[in-house]
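User: Batch of two.

Assistant: Item 1 of 2:
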Amino acid sequence: MPVTMSSAETQNTITRGHACITCSQRKVKCDGQRPCSSCVRSGRASDCHSASTATSLAARIRDARVKELVLIRRLRHYESLLTAHGISFSNSEPSAIVGQGDGPQDGCFSPIQRIKPDSPPSADEGHVIRHRGHPRFVDNIIWNSLRDELPEDDYYSVLDGEDEETLAGDEQGSLTPESLLFSRATPPGTSADETVPSIPQILKLWQIFLDNFNPLVKLFHAPTVQLIVHQAVVDSGSLGRSQKALLRAIFQCAAVTLTDDECIAQLNESREVILSRYSAATKLALVRADFLKSTDRTTLQALTLYLLAIRDMTDEQSLWILTGTARRLAQAMGLHREQSLKKCSHFEAELRRRLWWQIVVSDHQAGRMIGVSSRDVPGPYTTDTKRPVNINDSDLYQEMKEPPTSRNYPTEMVFCAVRYEIGQCMSQLSLGPSDHTLARKLELINECEKKIVATLSQCDLSIPLHLLTTLMGRSAIGQFRFNTLLSGARNSNDNSPETAARLFGLALEVLDEMCLALSSPSLKRFHWHMRGVHPFQFLILVLKHLLAHPGGDEVPRAWATLNRMFEHRPDLVNDVKTPLSFASGSLVLKAWNKCCQDAARHVLVKSQVIIELEKQRAPVSSRTPGPEFDAAGVLSSDSFTNLGLWAPSQQGLMDAAFSGTSDQDFSHLLSGNSVGPWDLQSDTQLEGLLWPQQQ
């Protein structure tokens, strides 16, 4: 006799493929019940739905949105008819219906409406459309000519029913444009969850990031990201792809700030192993977030942090290509136009300003490292996006109704605020009238110095961030004066010993400030930033001056400063893989030998770096033929090519830095080509401590 099952038993039968969505995402076993026992135990009973139920639910929501859009269109049509017949109606109530979002960026755009500005912008100002659930900025003759044809209610975006989570590549990682930039870091089929640190490590890395990295970058709103970190601790499987990418980038940035000993002590692994793992995890997360097609702010924040973390591990050209990609993505989101930010909430607009300024700064410095003119890589001052304001994160919240007001005292943003203030002054110098006299430029510098000093005077030097900001500000003013004097002397062909002596003194002051920052124990947490500073311009000028005046009264002080610098930054002169570093080391030996020949008036102590450089440059018959020097002791270009050290993009940089000159000729200090990546907009140069650069 056949056995028949009751209706209850049939309903509770477990079949393959009927796991609920929550269990599928968490990768746990599901008993097939509704709600299942796993969801009941974890308190997710109300969220326990099968795939078919979720699909039908999404379809109902989509249909409801379409009906709402039809109603909105009809209302707007009726309003236009009333207006056409001269019948006025109150504008106090908005005619558009603003939807409610579900994420931290909801204040920017409604899911069903592109908010019109109070007055239509001109055709050349561009405008914002909505694409895949996020804003996209368009600005060219084609888009502007079709502006009136675009659906204001984002009709097509609603109909397609797709978001960036479903558009992103699957877990197996099919071949995508992203993979051309970021090769797959893990074998196909590897779960992204395998690279997630343990819960104690997540909390530790987050705190390290807040202490060491965040104060100098301030890329996001820390309390908001704190919620994502908490969610990762509770249930990492519930995070979206963009959130996973952001967390992995944060972990990588935190590890970058640690030394090898600190990594072993705090994370129980070597720095090399940790950086390799987190770099691979971040790349994988960015690829899965479909970052090249994304206009999501969180994804772009993750990419920006990743680029900051790899600048010491990536060659100059690759870094420049990647920062250029980030800049294009930011422009696609409209971050480069203040007009587009007016459509966002005050909270969202401020975060986008922070993101834009950091991306442009990174792109500019990467371009300068490979020899690209600043005219071809404009800085943030050439756009109308406002500077981020000087406020604490506690002053910024999603529900704020008024734009944040900048504080007149040091806040968590003090380092970035002073850096941007200096940059704005530099922009006035470089982009101002070409007939600005030297006196006028010095007057602008004095005005900038007053503003900076007003902020620095309120800093508490017992606070590491305030100490670094103070040293950076003082160094920046010295760099301002140095570059302004250098530019003025070059334009007037002033090769006098007095001018050269002033430049020499200013260069030593800048190097002294940097040595002070490098030697301060409280600033050790920020050494990752200072490792990106390459003071080649000041270093080379001091060495050239010592070659010209080996017996001068300033020789002992100069070598004391240089030795302190080399003690903390030996990579400036002993890295044989970097052309500037290798050639600088040769110039150090040349200046040292010259001063030793005239050492009757001074007692010079040979430092360890000098000893290592002599061993490194010592001829050994058994080794591969070393680099060749010309009669003036300058490394030849053929030697760079033979050693695999030569970069064609650095030809002008190298020629300006290491051309042979007579002892009394100071024209090399006033040449048109700058030495080192110090130029931001034109001849008025200033990066140094302001913006870290790829090593």
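Item 2 of 2:
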Amino acid sequence: MEFFPDGMHLRLRNRKHGTYLHADEDGVYVSLSLHRASLNTAWQVHRVLRDGGNEYVLLHSAAYGRYLALSPDQVSLVYVGHHAVQGVYESPEQDDVLWRPSGWTTKAATSSCSTSRTVSSAPPPGTHS
């Protein structure tokens, strides 16, 4: 959790493609973008305690005020993953917006989804992951 302090703004980078998670203008979808210097790629960390003291993070879009969430719909009949989307955080019991930090990366903490999606924050200058 030391890499995800409450209130911190960060950008979520796909290390494989060198792109950043971008909140799309429709307020629903997210995509990958090469443009780091955009409000649409900034996400604010909100830390929450759940399930008897387990720590999770919510990732709040600086651009549209929605949270990074997992869609309940599967990507396809072949692939068991779920799309990342922008969602509304309406209830403390809501699981689709919870992310579990692990070093520089986060994984979806949704119990209803059988697969987790990993995103990583870009480390501060001068540090290595």
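The beta strands are 9-14, 19-23, 30-33, 42-50, 54-61, 67-74, 82-87, 99-102, 105-108, 118-121.
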